Amino acid sequence: MEKTFYIETFGCQMNAHDSEKVAGTLLQQGYNQVETPEEAGYVFYNTCSIRDKAEQKVFNRLQHFKKSAGKDKIFAVIGCVAQQEGEKIFDRAPHVNLVAGSASYTRLPEMLVQLEAGNKRVTGLSLDNSEAFDTPFTRRDNPHRAYLTIIEGCDKKCSYCVVPFTRGPERSRTSASVMEEATRLADSGRTEIQLLGQNVNSYRDPSPAGWDFATLLDRVGSIPGIRRVRFMTSHPRDFVRPIIDAIESNRNLCSHVHLPVQSGSTSVLKGMQRLYTREQYMERISWMKRARRPISITTDIIVGFPGETERDFEDTLELLEEVQYDSLFAFKYSPRPNTSALGLGDHIPEEEKTRRIMILNERQRAIQIRRNSERVGAVEEVHVEGRHATLGQWIGRTEHNQTLNFSGRDDEALLGHYVPARVTRAGPNSLVGESVNQADFASVL
Ligand code: 5AD
Ligand code: SF4
Question: What is the rounded distance in angstroms from the CA atom of residue 104 to the CA atom of residue 123?
Answer without folding.
Answer: 9
